[in-house]
Write a structure and sequence with these properties.
35% of the residues lie in helices and 14% in strands. The chain is built from 16 helices and 13 strands. Helix 2 packs across helix 3 and helix 8 runs parallel beside helix 10. InterPro entries: DNA/RNA_pol_sf, Retrotrans_Pao.
């Protein structure tokens, strides 16, 4: 792809290489006429050329133009169609569109053998049989089963004489590539060990403490079991009548995360709920209350839900976000202006990204993301139906919140995040016909003024004891003293 993009003649002097055939030859300088893979600008130029190709010829190939605009990642195209006829049309348009730009698509792969056989490209660029598995942006795709899988090799010997260090722990953790967060609970388990090593301030080549070493060996021993997972790529139902998005967050003192599930209801009444994606974070070593952590993960869920809705070509009938924190649920329903900065900023972000009415309460025991907040051993995740298919109440035709929130107005953690409201000053005026005794005790109006003046001075001095008024009342306007 990169070699099919010419550099503008005015820019070729900026892209030079030096070369010589042998040690004795003089150095020659060459100007590059085409984009060089690996340069800083190469990625941008490749994407910009594809965008221009769609702008120039996209009107002739509408299916291909839409696919290239949204399903292209660098020089890889991951796309599809609802039926074979549409897929064939899409394939033909893609070939024609890229041919117009002097490019040829190759390394075709599909879960439909008929689509592979009907190919306009050379036999060397396409396999006429469906492979057992192929790479798809870092994940394994098994076309025959149309499922996603993982290929993780711990590459760590668990023998007694082997030394396990912080470096080897990080190396193994980094091998787990999970862009969709399908095995976030397993990744969290590894990250928690890594965080503990940082807390202990171990150097890269220091051996792990005995307890952590035993825990890590047990984790690594069963890490390869995730390679047996077969996760359905297509999670919708045919002829879906209604498609809903359901999100769950959860937090603990160690970690927090959020997951998105897609719930489908077909014309026949069949209901399916499947995990779509998730995000996980390790909690900071700095002490923070659980309600605040729950609020942070609520923000994470709001962002993840918004990203999912805008990036997928699906019109969701409704969006429901479930939290097991009654405190967070109550904060979200408040005006952010009455809350302290930490909570106010996050509640404001949640309200900007989601509808307040979308948030519902779910019991902790039915929250699938509780597994992320604790982590799970690799051998257990395959049989964890709560993680893969969400709570059982989502299988009901009418989804109702399984519990009612209790009153939390007396909860100290809830109340402490509200700003203190100053008491409003009140002026009370009493109108009556009675004459004050002080008036009857003064023989003249001048004497009454002097008495009131002394009273006023006393009150002012009591309020401002650092600079009190002194001396006799000499001014005729006694109330100014």
């Amino acid at each position: 792809m990169f070699r099919m993009i010419f550099i503008d003649e005015s820019q070729r002097d900026l892209l030079r290489i030096v070369w010589k055939e042998s040690v004795d030859d003089s150095i020659k300088t060459y100007k590059m006429n085409r984009v060089v893979y690996g340069t800083t600008c190469a990625s941008y130029l490749a994407q910009r050329v594809l965008k221009q190709l769609v702008m120039d010829d996209g009107h002739n190939y509408p299916l291909a133009a839409s696919s290239v605009s949204s399903d292209m990642y660098m020089d890889d195209l991951l796309t599809g169609a609802a039926d074979i006829y549409s897929a064939k049309q899409l394939k033909e348009q893609l070939i024609a569109l890229f041919r117009g730009g002097g490019m040829q698509l190759h390394k075709w792969s599909s879960n439909c053998k008929e689509l592979l056989a009907n190919s306009e490209v050379s036999d060397g660029d396409v396999s006429l049989t469906i492979p057992d598995e192929t790479k798809a942006l870092g994940l394994l795709w098994r076309p025959q089963k149309d499922s996603l899988a993982f290929s993780v090799s711990a590459n760590v010997d668990t023998c007694e004489s082997c030394k396990i260090t912080k470096r080897s722990v990080l190396s193994t953790t980094a091998r787990i590539f999970d862009p969709l967060g399908l095995i976030s609970p397993v990744v969290t388990k590894a990250k928690l060990v890594m965080q503990e090593l940082w807390r202990l301030k171990l150097d890269w080549n220091d051996s792990l403490p005995i307890q952590l070493e035993s825990q890590w060996k047990r984790f690594v021993t069963f890490l390869s079991t995730i390679n047996t997972l077969n996760i359905p790529r297509y999670i919708l139902l045919n002829y879906a009548l209604k498609i809903e998005l359901h999100g769950f967050p959860d937090a603990s003192e160690k970690a927090y995360g959020a997951a998105i599930y897609v719930r489908c209801l077909s014309n026949s009444g069949e209901i399916s709920t499947n995990l779509l994606c998730s995000k996980s974070r390790i909690a900071s070593l700095k002490s923070i209350t659980i309600p605040r952590l729950e609020l942070c993960v609520a923000v994470l869920l709001a962002k993840l839900a918004q990203k999912t809705i805008t990036s997928m070509k699906i019109s969701f009938h409704s969006t429901v976000l479930w939290t097991d924190s009654t405190i967070v649920l109550a904060w979200i329903q408040k005006d952010p202006s009455v809350l302290k900065p930490f909570v106010r900023n996050r509640v404001g972000a949640i309200q900007n990204l989601t509808e307040v009415s979308a948030w519902q309460h779910v019991p902790s025991k039915e929250n699938p993301v509780d597994i992320i907040s604790r982590g799970i051993d690799p051998k257990k995740i395959q049989d964890c139906n709560l993680w893969w298919f969400a709570p059982s109440f989502l299988q009901d035709h009418s989804v109702v919140s399984p519990c009612v929130c209790s009153d939390i107005n007396d909860n100290e953690l809830y109340q402490r995040e509200f700003k203190k409201t100053p008491t409003d000053p009140v002026c009370l005026v009493v109108q009556g016909q009675e004459v004050l005794p002080i008036i009857n005790n003064c023989s003249s109006f001048t004497r009454l003024q002097r008495v009131i003046g002394w009273c006023v001075r006393f009150v002012r001095n009591a309020k401002n004891s650092l600079q009190p008024s002194k001396g006799n009342l000499t001014s005729p306007n006694y109330l100014n003293h």
